[in-house]
Specification:
Helix content: 25-40%
Oligomer: single chain
Shape: globular
Distance between the termini: 44 Å
Structural class: alpha+beta
Strand content: 25-35%
Order of helices and strands: HHHEEEEHEEHHEHEEE
Length: 249
């Protein structure tokens, strides 16, 4: 074997190694969303590195919105409540044509347990036939139904989720906030695929539009720590008075 065919070892700066160790703690649930993590001094002692190395790791994680520094209080695991009311619907990209700020309301319709079919198993990275939880809900913008959603979740992570819990949580926070506070799972990023479809009779009735009305079909896969997919969502958006907005950079 020639020397050129041998891959050189990958060098990782020490602060990046500390970042990886902190991320492992987040993945393991050692520190849950919204909780205070140990001080830089404590982490430096734990990992046997300088406080400056820990600070650099935390700075990078704060820049990536994984951690939040609070003056005089310490560093906390970021949660969906940190960015204000709009964070309640973090990945929702619908905006009113008028530009007005609207009241968003989530109305849970159904929640049931099932076994993962081939597509759900592939998308969520779980075994075929593994337990899943399916949620159907309606999103209202200032009282008007605009989005109907069907959400698939791994049963092993969200085993206690049911319709009663969803209904009881209304007005207390978002769906993602519920998943954080009750189950310790935070959605970090999402991928979406969008296409145009026609409203069928059932969804047309829920969205209060005529059958055959053009809708946006939005399929989303959301990931948590370790880039693990933990939510598969299929949504239908009514765009009669709203449009899909996404900032590109």
């Amino acid at each position: 074997m020639s020397q050129d065919s041998v891959s050189a070892p990958t060098f990782s700066p020490l602060y990046r190694q500390i970042k990886t160790l902190i991320l492992q703690g987040l993945e393991a649930g050692e520190w849950r969303p919204g909780e205070l993590i140990p001080s830089e001094t404590e982490l430096a002692l734990r990992f046997n590195v300088s406080q400056g190395t820990v600070r650099k790791a935390i700075d990078e994680m704060a820049a990536e919105s994984l951690l939040v520094r609070r003056q005089g209080k310490g560093t906390y695991v970021a949660s969906h409540t940190d960015a204000g009311p709009r964070e309640a619907f973090r990945f929702l990209r619908l905006v009113a044509e008028t530009g007005a700020t609207e009241t968003l309301q989530s109305v849970p319709l159904e929640c049931w347990r099932a076994k993962a079919g081939h597509e759900a198993a592939r998308t969520l990275g779980i075994a075929f036939g593994a337990p899943i939880i399916i949620v159907r809900r309606l999103l209202k913008f200032s009282g008007k139904p605009v989005v109907i959603e069907e959400i698939y979740l791994p049963g092993e992570l969200f085993g206690g989720l049911d319709l009663e819990m969803l209904q009881a949580y209304q007005g207390q926070g978002s769906f993602y906030s519920l998943l954080e506070t009750r189950f310790g799972v935070r959605m970090l990023r999402a991928e979406e695929r969008i296409r145009a479809v026609a409203a069928d009779p059932v969804n047309a009735k829920l969205l209060e539009v005529a059958q055959g009305t053009p809708l946006l079909s939005v399929e989303r896969v959301s990931h948590t720590y370790g880039d693990r997919p933990v939510e598969w969502r299929q949504s239908l958006y009514s765009t009669a008075t709203h449009y899909y907005s996404n900032e590109l950079s």
